[in-house]
């Protein structure tokens, strides 16, 4: 396996300049060993009393490694030349309105040569178009990003639509008296929802490992086709046993889909662009809610056709939609930017110059995106290193608690509206306003994070939004009695500005290499699903219809999530200051020696800074 990157990406993101906490390292200067530990900053400063403050300009050198897996060469399906064809790529081409060179870390010759060696050693599929001197105009980049959005982001949204259709249609089915038809009650419904979430959670990491080994372009379509068959089979549910079985199978087959898709998107977009595209991605969640609500309004009217209940037709039709999307995805997901040409798409998506720009703009933003081949599996050692990266644990803690307060009200929305006296058909239509406002708030929140280059203090707006709504559900005397007042509170609550896109991009940014990014995406999503499992038991049969006990629990969790956001911000500020002091306590020669000899990877390196 190849060495990992050595520093944070330069230029685009304004996080603190590039650093980890290492148990111990040895820096060698003139034959003298200077040992140091993270906890012993004073010893470093006393040993090096007159050190000047150094610039944050980084160069990259090969990592030393005793891991035999890191010496392996992985085969590539790409048969393109391994050297950079300068005339084709326009190496010496003068470009008007060129993107400033300050965004190019490869202008340093040693940095460029180091990463060229990394890409060759890993057999990175795009290595033949790596060109440190390539220039392109802002207009070219804007047009290219638009083309990426049309071909890559749009289809990612279509696939997420397929996921959400089958993941969310149960709430519409129960509005058609599905529970009564199958002889189930609220606790059975909770249990089935929990089984789905637990299965989804358990499949996250294995799915990511399979995706990294075979490629998300192959694994994601396979997932979709497999779970669509299970989704269709729900039209034949006969009782509690078959209900719980299909819930488990759906969770297991759908688990890992989201981090798999995020991994695929990261091949095409920079770290600053990815959260915005993820906001479009999760906007699909609300769009799907609107479309399926309208579709349910029509399909549930089929009750009695061929002796079937309306919810059976719902599962049959919507499962078939996902099957079609899954089959189409085999043809719509290229393995990389340089592999879009195929027998059914002979011209590909990009010209040769556009391919080169796509690859180099991503690598200049984050050179580590090429330190593994896209068909390269994680070794057990690299998996373990990613699992124990405790600097990402605060993000997992946010994932666990941030989405709990709105989960039970969302899950029980249709049942609550039915209990308020709304008809089956009006209930599905009344869910639409929340989805529309949710879309607007999601995009605005993610845009605000990008404009301010701020994550924690923008994402915290989500729990601040839900707090007064949860408070009203717990203490307002008109809950249930005033059906339109109750409806207004629920719709306001579920219109919350969703911070999930910010958190996923944040987790990816702070991972700092492909291996850790693959695992951290799964672990973050697992923490979210673990929170959802807990949330599914907050509203209980003996607590309805007011759910006073449940809403008290939600109120407490909402307050805790606000605290966790603030503590995460403080933690990353503290870690960056800690690393900055250690890094600036080293001479320039010691810094160079550190880059040559350290075995630390990802965010644990001293020359990396956390985004917050």
Describe the fold and architecture.
- The protein is globular and about 75 Å long.
- It contains 26 helices and two strands.
- With 612 residues, the chain is mostly helical.
- Helix 19 (432-452) runs parallel beside helix 22 (483-494).
- The chain has a two-stranded antiparallel ribbon with strand order 1-2.
- It starts with 24 loop residues before the first strand and ends in a 15-residue tail after the last helix.
- It has helices at residues 41-47, 86-89, 109-122, 138-168, 170-174, 178-182, 186-214, 216-233, 240-254, 257-266, 274-299, 310-332, 352-365, 380-387, 393-401, 407-411, 413-419, 424-430, 432-452, 456-459, 461-475, 483-494, 500-511, 514-535, 548-584, 588-597; strands spanning 25-29, 32-36.
- Mean pLDDT is 80; it is low at 1-94.
Brief summary of the model shown:
The chain is mostly helical and 612 residues long. It is 60% helix and 2% strand. The model is unreliable at 1-94 (pLDDT under 50).
Q: Any descriptors?
A:
disordered N terminus; globular; mainly alpha
Topology:
Blueprint: E1 25-29, E2 32-36, H1 41-47, H2 86-89, H3 109-122, H4 138-168, H5 170-174, H6 178-182, H7 186-214, H8 216-233, H9 240-254, H10 257-266, H11 274-299, H12 310-332, H13 352-365, H14 380-387, H15 393-401, H16 407-411, H17 413-419, H18 424-430, H19 432-452, H20 456-459, H21 461-475, H22 483-494, H23 500-511, H24 514-535, H25 548-584, H26 588-597
Antiparallel strand pairs: 1-2
């Amino acid at each position: 396996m190849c060495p990992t990157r050595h520093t944070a990406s330069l230029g685009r993101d304004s996080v603190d300049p590039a650093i980890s906490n290492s148990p111990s390292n040895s820096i060698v200067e003139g034959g003298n060993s200077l040992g140091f530990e993270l906890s012993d900053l004073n010893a470093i400063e006393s040993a090096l009393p007159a050190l000047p403050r150094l610039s944050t300009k980084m160069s990259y050198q090969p990592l030393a490694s005793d891991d035999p897996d890191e010496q392996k060469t992985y085969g590539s399906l790409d048969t393109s030349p391994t050297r950079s064809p300068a005339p084709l790529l326009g190496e010496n081409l003068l470009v008007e309105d060129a993107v400033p060179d300050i965004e190019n870390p490869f202008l340093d010759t040693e940095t460029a040569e180091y990463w060229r060696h990394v890409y060759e050693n890993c057999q990175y599929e795009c290595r033949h178009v790596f060109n440190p001197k390539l220039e392109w105009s802002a207009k070219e980049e804007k047009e290219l990003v638009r083309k990426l959005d049309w071909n890559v982001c749009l289809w990612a949204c279509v696939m997420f639509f397929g996921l959400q259709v089958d993941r969310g249609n149960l709430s519409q089915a129960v509005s058609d008296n599905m529970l009564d038809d199958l002889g189930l009650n609220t606790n059975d419904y909770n249990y089935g929802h929990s089984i789905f979430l637990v299965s989804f959670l358990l499949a996250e990491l294995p799915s990511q490992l399979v995706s990294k080994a075979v490629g998300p372009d192959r694994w994601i379509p396979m997932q979709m086709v497999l779970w669509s068959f299970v989704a269709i089979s729900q039209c034949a549910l006969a009782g509690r046993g078959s209900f719980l079985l299909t819930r488990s199978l759906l969770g297991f087959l759908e688990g890992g889909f989201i981090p798999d898709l995020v991994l695929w998107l990261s091949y095409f977009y920079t770290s600053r662009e990815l959260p915005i595209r993820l906001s479009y991605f999760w906007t699909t969640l609300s769009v799907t809610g609107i479309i399926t609500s309208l579709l349910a309004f029509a399909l549930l009217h089929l009750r009695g056709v061929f002796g079937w209940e309306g919810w059976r037709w719902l599962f049959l039709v919507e499962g078939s939609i996902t099957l079609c999307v899954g089959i189409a995805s085999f043809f719509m997901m290229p393995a990389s930017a340089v592999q879009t040409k195929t027998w059914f798409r002979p011209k590909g998506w990009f010209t040769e110059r556009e391919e080169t720009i796509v690859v180099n703009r991503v690598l200049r933003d984050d050179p580590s995106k090429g330190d593994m081949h896209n068909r390269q599996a994680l070794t057990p050692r690299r998996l373990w290193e990613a699992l124990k990266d405790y600097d990402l644990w605060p993000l997992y803690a946010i994932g666990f608690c941030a989405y709990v307060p709105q989960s039970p009200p969302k899950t029980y929305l249709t049942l609550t509206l039915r209990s308020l006296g709304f008809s089956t058909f009006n209930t599905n239509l009344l869910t639409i306003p929340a989805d529309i406002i949710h879309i607007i708030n999601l995009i605005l929140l993610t845009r605000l994070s990008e404009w301010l280059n701020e994550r924690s203090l923008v994402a915290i707006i989500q729990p601040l939004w839900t707090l007064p709504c949860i408070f009203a559900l717990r203490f307002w005397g008109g809950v249930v009695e005033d059906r339109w007042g109750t409806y207004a509170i629920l719709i306001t609550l579920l219109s919350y500005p969703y911070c999930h896109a910010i958190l996923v991009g944040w987790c990816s940014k702070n991972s700092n290499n492909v291996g850790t990014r693959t695992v951290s995406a799964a672990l973050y999503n697992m923490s979210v699903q673990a929170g959802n499992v807990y949330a599914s038991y907050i509203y209980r049969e003996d607590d309805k219809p007011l759910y006073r006990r449940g809403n008290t629990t939600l109120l407490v969790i909402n307050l805790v999530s606000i605290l966790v956001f603030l503590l995460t911000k403080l933690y990353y500020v503290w870690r960056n200051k800690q690393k900055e002091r250690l890094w600036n306590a080293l001479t320039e020669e010691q810094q160079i020696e550190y880059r040559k000899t350290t075995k630390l990877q990802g965010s644990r390196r001293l020359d990396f800074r956390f985004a917050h």
